[in-house]
Write a structure and sequence with these properties.
Length: 505
């Protein structure tokens, strides 16, 4: 399971000395003609910049600036395209992938990237249990020659290329020489070189003029760490920063009315759900309580309306997506909920709701408690420390909890298997459904995309029919930025490719 990055606090009194000015014209617009830098606000600091030790998806996205993978996701088509590998071959049985590396690619210290570095990287990934694809997919790897790598799998895996788009290649020589220091002074092949890291304050990167895909237009990236969303927005308004992901609903609406700011929103790949422990709460009760949830009200109470209410945990374009008319869904209906509870003989039902302590989780818990009371069900709220929640989740000692998962654009298998298979590492609902298990095991090795998609649709139909998971909303990723900035485009939630950005002339 991936650990979550803990936000570090930053004293407001440091603000005045924290920023470098961007410069403004008389009309308030930032002058871009003389600029070759970019200031980005981040809500959290990192614990490491070692790409094989990253604890959260936000960290992985950040490291995409410093490192490259063998392949990458095209921001426009969302298809896999070459990166460090110029091409690859797949064996007839799908058990091995042979990658042909680009020649002359240099790490930031000047050393040429070779096949041995890729083999080293594969091995390091395999040692990290939470990196799913490495631990359960990769059997071994070998350097055929300096520019050819063969990766052997334990079994055919349809989404292998999508998974290794996150496998950022590190230098074997540098990592061995630097040891623990590498986590604070990373060296990759990416479009930007690491300059410095002032913990809790900023990270500075500079353009890699020798980047194999061409030097980026923006020569310097400064990432300011500002946990407080109000402070962050003020910095953006003053022109002390150019791009901000940490935007409250109020500030985002205000930014929309500001001609000196540009706004954009992307439906996040993370969805949030109410999860019943299927070992302790039977099917009809789960269905009944699904009808008791007013999702629109939940979105307002938890997200200030800044979320996208959903009946299914998938966005259009993802594998397994079908029109919601094909699924059993649960529109808010108090009377239907009461009827099903009566049929289930669930009079005076009491359930507990365990959740990791946070403002959002607390708001959700209170909302569900109020809604369930309307149908005669008592929900006892049990806030616990995050570590305790993980332990309880592992033991199955709860009736309900909050769940969710980032649904990847290029690989549906990882979240599906994680959440719904009996052996999944984030199976909050404790699902052990033979039909689901079989479908997921078949889909994992099915190379035909259409056949695989139909299997995932069937999985979703079972999930929704039996109310194992009650999807609530997708997070809405909002961004506010300097309107003089071009190509502000997300691959998915908060993964922006800075090497593609530039200033307008």
């Amino acid at each position: 399971m991936k650990k979550r990055t803990i936000a570090l606090t930053l004293c407001v009194c440091l603000l005045m000395g924290l920023f470098t000015g961007c410069g403004k014209t008389k009309d308030g617009q930032t002058s871009a003609k003389t600029r070759d830098d970019l200031v980005v606000i981040l809500p959290n600091d990192f614990t490491t910049l070692d790409p094989q030790m990253l604890p959260a998806s936000a960290d992985i996205n950040f490291c995409a600036n410093i490192f490259d993978g063998l392949v990458e996701v095209d921001p426009d088509t969302k298809e896999i395209k070459p990166s460090l590998a110029e091409s690859w071959d797949i064996s007839d049985d799908g058990m091995s992938y042979t990658f042909h590396l680009k020649k002359g690619v240099k790490f930031h210290n000047g050393d040429e990237m070779k096949a041995s570095d890729v083999v080293y990287t594969c091995k390091r990934f395999a040692e990290q249990a939470w990196m799913q694809f490495a631990s359960f997919m990769i059997q071994d790897s070998e350097a055929v020659d300096d520019y050819t790598v063969k990766i052997n799998l334990k079994y055919p895996y349809a989404n292998f290329l999508g998974e290794i788009s996150y496998m950022y290649v590190t230098s074997e020589k540098y990592m061995n020489e630097a040891g623990d220091k590498a986590a604070k002074n990373p060296i990759g092949t990416g479009a930007y070189k690491f300059v410095k890291w002032d913990v809790s304050q900023q990270i500075v990167l500079e353009a890699n003029k020798d980047y194999f895909a061409g030097a980026p237009s923006i020569k310097k990236l400064t990432f300011k760490i500002i946990p407080d969303s109000n402070t962050a927005f003020v910095a953006l308004e003053k022109g002390e920063a150019d791009l901000n992901f940490n935007v409250s609903a109020v500030d985002y609406n205000q930014a929309k009315e500001n001609p000196d700011l540009e706004t954009d929103e992307v439906v996040g790949n993370s969805y949030y759900a109410a999860n019943f422990n299927s070992d302790r709460v039977d099917e009809k009760v789960r269905q009944a309580l699904a009808y008791a949830i007013d999702k629109e009200a939940v979105n307002v109470l938890v997200n200030e309306g800044q979320g996208v209410v959903t009946d299914i945990p998938l966005e259009k374009g993802q594998e397994g997506y079908a029109d919601k008319s094909e699924y059993t869904t649960y529109a808010y209906d108090v009377e239907k909920s009461k009827k099903l509870l009566a049929e289930a003989g669930a009079k005076d039902l009491k359930l507990d709701f365990f959740y990791g302590e946070s403002t959002a989780n607390g708001k959700l818990a209170q909302a569900l408690q109020s809604m369930f009371s309307e149908v005669g069900v008592t929900l006892e709220l049990k806030p616990v420390e995050t570590g305790t929640w993980w332990q309880m989740f592992g033991d199955g000692d709860y009736d309900m909890s909050r769940g969710g998962y980032p649904m990847e654009d290029v690989n549906t298998d990882a979240p599906y298997f994680d959440m719904y298979h009996k052996d999944g590492t984030f199976n909050v609902s404790r699902i052990n459904d033979p039909d689901i298990n079989n479908l997921l095991e078949q889909a994992r090795v099915e190379m035909d995309a259409d056949k695989r998609d139909k299997m995932y649709v069937e999985v979703q139909k079972i999930i929704m029919e039996k109310a194992y998971v009650i999807p609530l909303y997708f997070n809405l990723s909002t961004v506010v930025y300097n309107p003089a900035l071009k190509n502000v485009k997300a691959i998915h939630n908060q993964k922006y490719i800075y090497k593609n950005m530039s200033w307008k002339e």
